[in-house]
Amino acid sequence: MAGSFNARGELEVSDGLLILAAGKKRSGKSVLALVLFDSFPDDRVVIDVNGDDGPRQDVIELRGSVHELPRRWPEEQREHPGQRMTLRYVPDVGSATFLEDVDAVVGLALAHGRERHHDGGRGCALLIHEIGRVAPANRTRPHMLRALSQNRHYRTTVIMCGRVRLAGAPCSSTRSAGSPPPTARGRTCSAPCRRTGTTARRSSCAGRGPSRSIRCACSNAI
């Protein structure tokens, strides 16, 4: 987060940041995310997967699937020039195109962030509740990938909430609040191998998070 604070020592949310609030259910991650989201001075977008995380007041609701969602920012719905707009999208989690639906909204936020900055604004903020559903491992869609790797180029601050680590992040680099520490450090696992009875060196964690047991290279950990 170096370089993301202003002269007063405050977090500069409008500087194109990636912010992840991770933790157990009811640990306060959504509250923290909403405080940061509310501090953003320009236009905003929220993807509310469960439909109950907010914000829900003074928002413009987006509806429909990828084929029905707007491709450009609905500027005609801005009531007053200079007024901040907040778009809210509650996707249909049972839709066959769920990932494409939410990715279309991510793309809308990215495009508007760049446009807004070119027009002299502060870009755009995107709040995603349940990031694990929107960016699942090995199935993350193109706009979401751009948001995770190129958000500064799009002048879009992305605030994410979730109970799982981001797809592709090493097990040792991300740990949810309140979860136990990883069972292994460095290159070896702490679980004895069923076959040899010794602690074997491991080549990977087989995709398991830090709260679960870590397998050794022979996949025989107890």
Taken as a percent bin, the fraction of beta residues is 5-15%
Gap between N and C termini: 38 Å
CATH superfamily of the largest domain: P-loop containing nucleotide triphosphate hydrolases
Strand order of the largest sheet: 1-6-5-2-4-3
Rg, nearest Å: 20 Å
- Average pLDDT confidence is 79
Categorize the overall geometry. Answer: globular
Class by helix and strand content?
Answer: alpha/beta
The overall number of domains is: 2
Structural overview:
- By secondary structure, this protein is of the alpha/beta class.
- It folds into two domains: 13-162, P-loop containing nucleotide triphosphate hydrolases (Rossmann fold), CATH 3.40.50.300; 184-222, no CATH class.
- Helices cover 20% and strands 14% of the residues.
- The chain has a six-stranded parallel sheet, with helices on both faces.
- It is globular and about 45 Å long.
Brief overview:
This protein is of the alpha/beta class.
Task: Name its key features.
222 residues, alpha/beta, Rossmann fold, 6-stranded parallel sheet, 20% helix, disordered C terminus
Topology diagram in text:
Layout: E1 18-22, H1 29-38, E2 44-48, E3 60-62, E4 86-89, H2 98-118, E5 124-129, H3 131-134, H4 142-150, E6 156-162
Parallel strand pairs: 1-6, 2-4, 2-5, 3-4, 5-6
Helix pairs in contact: 2-4
